[in-house]
Write a structure and sequence with these properties.
Elements: H1 8-39, H2 43-63, H3 71-80, H4 94-105
Length: 106
């Protein structure tokens, strides 16, 4: 949230959790892309793949924002989507964790 200060130890945890979630989601997108490409039979299948990739890129760009003022929102969403788990955030201050958990419940 705006005005929230992150200690160095929390920043390290946040970076690790953020990068792991991002890489996992990118791997899922890559697997889907490969399956779509392997099954493409008609020229119009190319445009379906392009639309899938454009949507995936917009989703990733909108979701993964590493500004410290946004991390509680990002982690709340990732928890809700089960991209991360509460135990991944061990070491994050209790107040921040409580905010993240509230956001995840929205």
């Amino acid at each position: 949230m705006p005005g929230t200060t992150w200690k160095d130890s929390e920043k390290k945890i946040a970076r690790r959790v953020f990068e792991a979630a991002l890489q996992s989601e990118l791997a899922d997108i890559m697997a889907t892309f490969k399956a779509l490409a392997a099954n493409a039979k008609e020229p119009e299948d190319m445009w379906k793949i392009q639309a899938f990739l454009a949507h995936a890129q917009r989703d990733i760009d909108g979701k993964y924002d590493y500004r410290y003022s946004q991390l509680e929102l990002v982690f709340g969403r990732l928890l809700r989507e089960k991209r991360i788990y509460e135990q991944d955030l061990n070491g994050i201050a209790d107040e921040k964790l409580a905010n993240i958990l509230r956001i995840a419940e929205l």
